[in-house]
Amino acid sequence: MKNIREVLAIGFLLAASSMPGYASSFSFSPTTDAGSLWQVDGSLSGALAIESQSGGPNGDYTMVFTFASSLTSVGGVTVTSGTGTVTSGMIDPSNPDRYIVNLAGVTNGQIITVSLTNVLSSGGLKPTVSASMGVLIGDTNSDGFVDSADIAQTKSQSGILVTSSNFREDVNGDGFIDSADIAFVKSKSGTVLNNFQIDPTNRPARVPDTGSSAALLALALFGITFFGRRLRSGVTAPS
Ligand SMILES: [Ca+2]
Ligand SMILES: [Ca+2]
User: Fold this and answer.
1) In this structure, which ligand is nearest to the CA of 153?
2) How far is the CA of 85 from the centre of ligand 2 (A)?
3) How far apart are CA 178 and CA 159, in angstroms?
4) Mean pLDDT, contiguous 10-residue spans, the chain (239 residues)
5) What is the pTM of this model?
6) Which ligand approaches the C-alpha of residue 54 most closely?
7) How far is the CA of 213 from the centre of ligand 1 (A)?
8) Which among 173, 105, 103 is positioned nearest to 138, based on CA atoms?
9) Which of 2, 8, 53, 210 is deepest in the core (most CB within 10 A)?
């Protein structure tokens, strides 16, 4: 699995090598787990990748951008959408093709986008490079929902050595898949990745965003008030 990923990554790098300053890939993981072998491979232009592992009590995650050539400097790094803050950003001291972004306060059930500006590499200058990650703790099968399928998947891996193919089920990132992870996924059951559909044909409805929920609530309150008044006026009118 890891070998296939490496072959694909190398192929991607070769394909992107003719594009100056182009970020060829990025990956992410909980910060405490960032030194491990397994991170979620993101896509800069394709399907959204979802992080299933917890970033701990402070929501600490690390994103790594990989470029086709060595970086000279990066002008700035910010969270351009979603909830979370950049605590640090640096060119990887052990590999200048990579830029590491540490994040804190990343909340669950959201898509967060991080942007690098004025990325100067040996391949040229890129004004903006952005990457997004979905954060949904316990969504081990990456469909944007935490439900019985994720619980079953985690149960199926309980007690099995953590590898590149099942690390998503190590939800608390402690290096083991066990009852703690099953309980963790169960505790998140019913949560969703807001405003996200992996396949509209398989899911009946988009999750209402906060604005829609507020509008529905306002409409419901208006209805209760309006019909309540009508009811009261109907009852009191004869006397
Ligand atoms: Ca799921
Ligand atoms: Ca675990």
Assistant:
1) 1
2) 26
3) 6
4) 42 38 74 69 80 95 92 97 97 95 96 95 90 95 95 98 94 94 98 70 37 39 42 38
5) 0.73
6) 2
7) 23
8) 173
9) 53
